[in-house]
Design goal:
438 residues, alpha+beta, 7-stranded mixed beta sheet, elongated
């Protein structure tokens, strides 16, 4: 079968022909027959080094060649920090509660560009909404409304109930709320670089070169917990740093630096990072062997027929799956403390995120590139006052109230918008909404 000869190969054939023609007309060999690489280079118009590389490839692959793929530069990734993600969530709720409209990609993007400086595409925003836990719900009219997944809304409602109930108690009964978090900073830290949570969802920027330092701390409206600051050098090249702050490191910090310095019977607020959420009573999954599933059912005194297949056994597990017991909750609980987890992607409910920003400015002001970053960070945290914490906590209290007040009417507003969508379905084509399904 004849194969198509591409333009580059045609050009080489023509060059070889021209060289042979010159030798024919001269009735003489124009280059040394003993120097094969040089003769090949002159005939093909390529360098000798290129000829050598191609010949070596031919020897290795028995004369079979493949065209190397283009080194294409990927599109620059849009960076969204924790606060950007929280702001996007609030804008979506704003559509329902204030504008009384169904948020769609096409009407969200102009608002996000104007208010947040968002410069992403429709597809990028679609991916962000997936990460944040939003989906499109089809109405009876086949039109779609963007709504938050119920498990995230439920976790937010549960969190607000616990926190607000505690805040409403008389002062003598109120528990102190302690917020903790982890972050990192690199040796060549500059003011224009973003301080970022080590488990931020979504798309991240490239990390600058130099040593990386993992930082973990905790505090309340009364200031940082004394002696709780931990800074250690990271060794991983992994940009998200999950391997640096792991279960072992986190548990060691909690037991050795946090617990000894906590006020009695505190509420400890943390996010859902994997190392915060090690399950002690983990139930079997599809990856569990049948014998282990049966052992788990027996240990939990769940009757089963020994002839059941694996899918049937897993249905039994699902039916009797216990409420998860988290290792860190048990450790803190043994000292009289209560763990409360933030709802996913709600960094705006954690005042320590604002404290990171203050620390960032203090570190950058010390010309980090020429000094010890660990010492600079320690000085920065030492310069953050009780007043800074009090202002940050007050800001978060207002956000909590805003979420609570908004949710009193949010789902009623969503229902009304859905009804309006169905009533107006005759004026808009279904396909206009189908293309926006996440």
């Amino acid at each position: 079968m004849n194969r198509t000869i591409r333009s580059s190969a045609r050009e080489i054939i023509y060059r070889v022909y021209r060289r042979c023609l010159l030798e024919y007309e001269a009735k003489n060999i124009l280059s040394d027959l003993n120097n094969v690489y040089k003769r090949t280079a002159e005939m093909t118009g390529k360098s000798e080094s290129t000829v050598r590389r191609v010949v070596l490839e031919g020897h290795r692959n028995n004369g079979i060649f493949s065209t190397p793929g283009k080194q294409r530069r990927g599109r620059p990734k849009k960076h969204l920090d924790d606060f950007d993600l929280c702001a996007i969530r609030q804008k979506i709720q704003f559509f329902y509660t204030v504008r009384k409209q169904a948020p769609m990609l096409r009407n969200l993007i102009p608002i996000l560009r104007e208010d947040l400086g968002y410069d992403g595409s429709h597809e990028h925003l679609r991916q962000v909404l997936k990460v944040l836990g939003f989906k499109y719900m089809k109405c009876q009219s086949e039109r779609s409304a963007l709504i938050e997944k119920s498990h995230i809304a439920a976790k937010r409602a549960e969190y607000l109930k616990i926190i607000l109930n505690n805040r409403n108690l008389p002062e003598e009964l109120r528990k102190e709320v302690i917020y903790l978090d982890e972050s990192y900073v690199h040796q060549s830290y500059k003011l224009e670089k973003c301080w970022q949570s080590i488990h931020v969802p979504g798309i991240k920027q490239n990390i600058s070169k130099g040593k990386r330092y993992i930082i973990i701390h905790a505090g309340s409206e009364k200031g940082f917990i004394p002696n709780a600051l931990l800074i250690f050098t990271g060794s991983s090249k992994n940009a998200d740093y999950h391997s640096e702050m792991n279960r072992s490191n986190f548990t060691k910090w909690v037991t050795e630096k946090l617990i000894p310095n906590l006020p009695p019977a505190s509420i400890i607020v943390m996010d859902n990072a994997p190392y915060h959420s090690t399950v002690l009573n983990k139930a079997p999954t599809t990856g569990t062997k049948i014998a282990e599933i049966k052992e788990w059912l027996t240990q939990n005194q769940i009757h089963f027929d020994d002839t059941l297949r694996k899918p049937q056994l897993l249905m039994l597990v699902k039916r009797h799956k216990p409420v998860p017991k988290y290792e860190i909750d048990e450790i803190l609980g043994s000292y009289g403390h209560t763990v409360v987890r933030l709802p996913p992607y709600h960094c705006d409910l954690n005042p320590i995120e604002l404290i990171w920003g203050i620390a960032k400015r203090k570190i950058a002001a010390q010309n980090v590139g020429s000094i010890d970053i660990k010492e600079a960070a320690e000085r920065a945290f030492g310069g953050i006052t009780e007043s800074d914490w009090r202002k940050s906590c007050k800001h978060v209290v207002e956000i909590e109230k805003s979420y609570y007040q908004r949710e009193l009417t949010l789902y009623h507003d969503i229902e009304q918008v859905v009804i309006n969508l169905e009533d107006s379905s005759s004026t808009t084509s279904d396909s206009e909404f189908e293309e926006e399904n996440i």
